[in-house]
Write a structure and sequence with these properties.
Layout lengths: L5 H15 L5 E5 L2 E6 L2 E7 L5 E4 L3 E2 L2 E6 L10 E5 L6 E2 L12 E3 L5 E2 L8 H4 L4 E2 L2 E4 L2 E5 L4 E5 L6 E2 L9 E6 L6 E2 L12 E3 L6 E2 L12 E3 L6 E2 L21 E2 L12 E3 L6 E2 L12 E3 L6 E2 L21 E2 L8 H4 L4 E2 L2 E4 L2 E5 L5 E4 L6 E2 L10 E5 L6 E2 L12 E3 L6 E2 L12 E4 L5 E2 L12 E4 L3 H5 L2 E2 L4 H4 L2 E4 L23 H11 L7 H7 L9 H11 L11
Parallel strand pairs: 3-6, 4-7, 6-8, 7-9, 8-10, 13-15, 14-16, 15-17, 16-18, 17-19, 18-20, 19-21, 22-24, 23-25, 24-26, 26-27, 30-32, 31-33, 32-34, 33-35, 35-37, 36-38, 37-39, 38-40, 39-41
Antiparallel strand pairs: 1-2, 2-3, 5-6, 11-12, 12-13, 28-29, 29-30
């Protein structure tokens, strides 16, 4: 597997942090409440009073509906005796009321997500009378169980939600019966219940939280009802005995790491409601031999099927717009040399990756539609590449650290240059960008200190309309050449001298290749000069011959006149 550069990973992480920060958050105070507003909804983040109080959380603050109580919002408020939470609140954050030592009365709405330790070390929590068989309930909500709970356990009728980490680390729990009426199985609800062998999720459950069954290494089967529309990240991570599961219609995403290291999972059918298979979704499912990816799927994330060694047949729908880095690495399909061509691994008409040993001039086969994420990453021996006109998509980091690449022409039809595409291409001196490009991502041209010339097939006005992301100083500092600045040159009676300057150079090869991929139109005289192999047309083969002549590897005298 190709090495992922740590420096760029850190850079992307920083970019991601900034990209997910709420765009419309502001803090306000009303009475004793401090709250933040985002997307028209209020989250309580602090409470100012410290007296002995029985309070009811307001359903609105500043005219905004209160939908969430943030993490630690009421932490350590020793004077709080009673709390009533309105129906508008759907989330209570982690440790929101933790260490409220006098809090003995708690009233919650029927359906609410309860974070880890939300009521830990309150008077209610510390009152042994509120515990039954080592399990604590608040109204219709199962809050937590003591880790010494063992054997079989039946959740009491009328329960609506199972809170975050409710049964986490109950290592001797073997079986749990969940009654109908439960709608939410919280984050990490059964995390690391290492002896849990089977569980039935009843009708009516809408969501299974992230890491809900993480590390349940003896769980062999689980029935997921049609009512479930959301399964969180890493929900079944490490369920190494899980042999089968049905994903219900209505789930729209196979979330990050959802089935990672489910090494006994042999087959899975993904419903046509799913539009994305996220990063590491099936990573390490070493027994997975069959998977059906529906036409509805548009994105497949990083490492999605990595190390699925028995997966020998892969069919990616035409509607998929991106395949993440190493999505199919070390699958049976990947390891089959029949699925490689010219040192390149293809799935359908998508170039997924090439071998690091690829060097010199490389031509991508005709008909290729997409160059995927990191496809040529770390191909330091690559000096030139011919991209056919059929390519319309080039993924992030596609040519990252191709330190020997000196020039490239992006064909007309490509609309975006993704983030990190040419990161670390330290020898890249010139690039041709088509007028079809409308955006250039963050760090697409970072660490390109030798980039001197950018050839744009449109006008200066069109160039200025392109949305250019951050960390692209190398691109913006280069000499820009627009289509309106080109000329027909001088005399073209010398074969290979496309620009008519009396000598054969890399510039002639570039002009020939631009014509071959449809970016430029040559005059009749130029076409005759560019037709190095004498077959009556200008192709990438001619450009390659001219380039070889420019560097002394080819004698134009041997070409057909």
């Amino acid at each position: 597997m190709k090495t992922v550069k740590r420096s760029f990973a850190i850079l992307l992480a920083a970019m991601l942090i900034f990209s997910v920060l709420p765009m419309s958050v502001f803090a306000e105070t009303e009475g004793d409440y401090t709250y933040e507003v985002s997307d028209g909804k209020a989250t309580i983040v602090g409470y100012g009073s410290s007296g002995n109080e029985k309070i009811t959380i307001p359903s609105t603050l500043g005219g905004y509906p209160v939908t969430e109580i943030g993490s630690y919002a009421f932490y350590n408020r020793h004077g709080l005796i009673s709390i009533t939470i309105p129906k508008s609140v759907t989330i209570i954050g982690s440790y929101a009321f933790s260490d409220c030592s006098a809090l003995e009365t708690i009233t919650l709405p029927d359906e609410i997500i309860i974070g880890a330790g939300a009521f830990a070390n309150t008077a209610y929590y510390n009152d042994f009378a509120n515990w039954s068989n080592s399990v604590l309930y608040i109204g219709k909500h199962l809050i937590c169980a003591k880790t010494d709970l063992s054997g079989k356990y039946k959740i009491k009728a009328g329960t609506k939600t199972i809170a975050t980490n409710a049964f986490a680390d109950c290592g001797n729990l073997t079986d749990v019966t969940i009654p109908e009426g439960v709608t939410i199985i919280g984050v990490g609800a059964f995390r690391d219940c290492g002896k849990l062998t089977s569980i039935a999720v009843p009708k009516g459950v809408k969501s299974i939280g992230s890491g809900a069954f993480y590390g349940c290494g003896k769980l062999t089967s689980i029935a997921v009802p049609k009512s479930v529309i959301s399964i969180g990240s890493s929900a079944f991570y490490g369920c190494s005995k899980l042999a089968s599961i049905t994903i219900p219609q209505g789930v729209t995403s196979i979330s990050m790491g959802c089935f990672r290291n489910c090494s006994s999972l042999k087959s899975i059918t993904i419903p046509d409601s799913v539009t994305s298979i996220e990063n590491e979704a099936f990573y390490g499912c070493s027994s997975l031999a069959s998977v059906t990816i529906p036409e509805s799927v548009t994105t497949i994330g990083l490492f999605a099927f990595c190390d699925c060694e028995k997966l020998t047949d892969i069919n990616v729908p035409d509607g998929v717009t991106s395949i993440g880095y190493s999505a199919f690495y070390n699958t049976g399909y990947y390891k089959n040399e029949k699925n490689w061509e010219n040192d390149a691994f293809y799935i359908n008409n998508r170039l997924v990756t090439v071998k690091n040993e690829v060097s010199g001039e490389y031509t991508i086969k005709e008909g290729t539609k997409a160059i995927e994420d990191s496809a040529f990453r770390n191909c330091s021996g690559l000096t030139g590449i011919t991209i056919p006109k059929s390519v319309s998509s080039i993924g992030p980091n596609a040519f990252e650290c191709c330190s020997g690449l000196t020039a490239i022409i992006i064909p007309e039809g490509v609309t975006s240059i993704s983030g990190g595409t040419f990161y670390g291409c330290s020898s890249l001196a010139e690039i041709t960008i088509p007028k079809s490009v409308t955006s250039i991502g963050d760090a697409a041209f970072i660490d390109n200190n030798n980039l001197t010339d950018v050839y744009f097939s449109g006008t200066e006005k069109q160039w200025k309309q392109i949305v250019v992301g951050t960390w692209n100083e190398s691109l913006l500092g280069a000499n820009l050449h627009y289509d309106e600045d080109t000329s027909d040159g001088g005399a073209f009676d010398k074969l290979g001298d496309v620009d008519g300057d009396g000598q054969i150079t890399a510039s002639d090869a570039r002009a020939s290749l631009r014509a071959a991929v449809g970016l430029d139109t040559l005059t009749e005289a130029q076409q005759k000069s560019a037709d190095a192999d004498g077959d009556g047309q200008v192709t990438s083969s001619d450009a390659r011959l001219i380039l070889r002549a420019a560097v002394g590897l080819e004698d134009p005298k041997n070409w057909k006149k």
